[in-house]
Automatic annotation (TrEMBL):
Any coiled-coil regions, as ranges: none
Subcellular location: Cytoplasm
This protein's name: Leucine-rich repeat-containing protein 51
Organism the protein comes from: Hexamita inflata
Pfam families per record: LRR_9
One cellular component term from this protein's GO annotations in UniProt: ribonucleoprotein complex
InterPro entries, per database record: Leu-rich_rpt (IPR001611), LRR_dom_sf (IPR032675)
Keywords, ordered alphabetically: Cytoplasm, Leucine-rich repeat, Repeat, Ribonucleoprotein
Length: 199
């Protein structure tokens, strides 16, 4: 009997876990714990009352776009309650919320993509936990006050070496070289933008 050869696409489809995003967009909540009893918009969350675990392992994602969240505390509880494979959470979108901190983000050690644009993050100290996410390769912070600091992009690339994409733009080889030189001489200074007043 002749064995059937798989194309590259078929092999990838069979061996790569699918990304399943559980969507809680537009819920009017200020804390993640308020989402625990809620069904997701896409009906893909793990049922509150149990259910049958999928046979095929999934990469998982969560989306909280345009909620009123101020932080991510309790994220670990929601991951356990809503995701079949919480350890496989690789995507998180909390854009256009009211985040002033990302406390709780360390519940996602395998996170690869984090979209938190349009929030209220003001200081690079607010982003310190991201240093511990060694697999984070795509980060978007546009629309947060922190991106207005001069040298913000250089600072982020220096402090988050695995980033391949920052604020929708690829991290280039030229930026990596520049950042290595700047880091060697310790010349990164973050300053608020200079406001120019019209006369």
């Amino acid at each position: 009997m002749k064995s059937k050869m798989l194309t590259t696409q078929q092999y990838i489809a069979q061996t790569t876990p699918v990304l399943q995003i559980v969507n809680f967009d537009n819920f009017n909540v200020s804390e993640i714990s308020e989402l625990l009893p809620e069904d997701s918009n896409c009906k893909k969350r793990k049922p509150v009352s149990g259910g049958k675990r999928p046979v095929k392992e999934l990469n998982q994602g969560l989306s909280f776009v345009q909620c009123n969240l101020i932080n991510l505390k309790g994220l670990d509880q929601l991951m356990s309650a809503a995701l079949w494979f919480p350890e496989n959470l690789i995507y998180l979108n909390a854009s256009n919320c009211k985040l002033t901190s990302i406390d709780g983000i360390l519940s996602c050690p395998r996170l690869k993509t984090l979209l938190i644009q349009g929030n209220k993050l003001q200081n690079v100290r607010d982003l310190e936990p991201l240093k511990q996410l060694s697999e984070l390769s795509s980060l978007s912070l546009t629309g947060n006050p922190v991106v207005l600091l001069s040298n913000y992009r250089i600072f982020m690339i220096v402090n988050h070496k695995n980033l391949k994409k920052l604020d929708g733009n690829p991290v280039t080889e030229a930026e990596i070289c520049l950042c290595a030189n700047v880091e060697d001489i310790g010349a990164i200074v973050l300053r608020p933008p200079v406001l120019v007043r019209e006369i």
